[in-house]
Amino acid sequence: MQRVYDFLKKCGTYYLATVEGDQPRVRPFGTIDLFEDKLYIQTGKVKEVSKQIQANPKVELSAFDGEKWIRVAGTLVRDDRIEAKTHMLDAYPNLKNMYSPEDDNTEVLYFKDAEATICAFTEAPVVIRF
């Protein structure tokens, strides 16, 4: 999982896909965190992406580092603990002007039953399950 985290952190931006009814939705994200041996993302509960994840927690993300790309598919699980939110916001202090561990909006979610695939045109894919 460290390799997946390092890859996404290096990319800076990844694209998260959710589903709304029968319509796929994709948007850029930039938050990624390792906390208690789990891979976390962050959003706001008031956002449509949060509502889509709660309706169908199966998501996929993708990122490209200029040479290789990654796809991570799995189920997102909300973690409402202050400790998880604090860890994420400490990793991204610029978000503290919009989010707080104590507010009802900050949402952190971790991947469960996930599979990451790192690909390149010149190498065999590497699959990492966590």
Question: What does this entry show, briefly?
Answer:
This protein is of the alpha+beta class and 130 residues long. The chain contains three helices and eight strands, in the order H-E-E-E-E-H-E-E-H-E-E.
Task: Report on this structure.
This protein has 130 residues and is an alpha+beta fold. Helix content is 22%, strand content 49%. The chain has helices spanning 2-11, 48-55, 82-91; strands at residues 14-20, 23-29, 33-35, 38-44, 58-64, 69-79, 106-120, 123-129. Strands 1, 2, 3, 4, 5, 6, 7 and 8 form an eight-stranded antiparallel beta sheet that branches. The longest helix is centred in the N-terminal third of the chain and has 10 residues, at 2-11. The termini are close together. The mean pLDDT is 98.
Low-confidence stretches: none
| Rg estimate, integer Å | 14 Å
Strand content bin: over 45%
Helix content: 10-25%
Topology order in helix (H) and strand (E) letters? HEEEEHEEHEE
Structural class: alpha+beta
User: How many DSSP-defined strands?
Assistant: 8
Query: Mean pLDDT, as a whole number?
Result: 98
Shape: globular
Number of DSSP helices? 3
Tell me the distance between the termini: 7 Å
Reported for the largest beta sheet, the result is: 8 strands, antiparallel
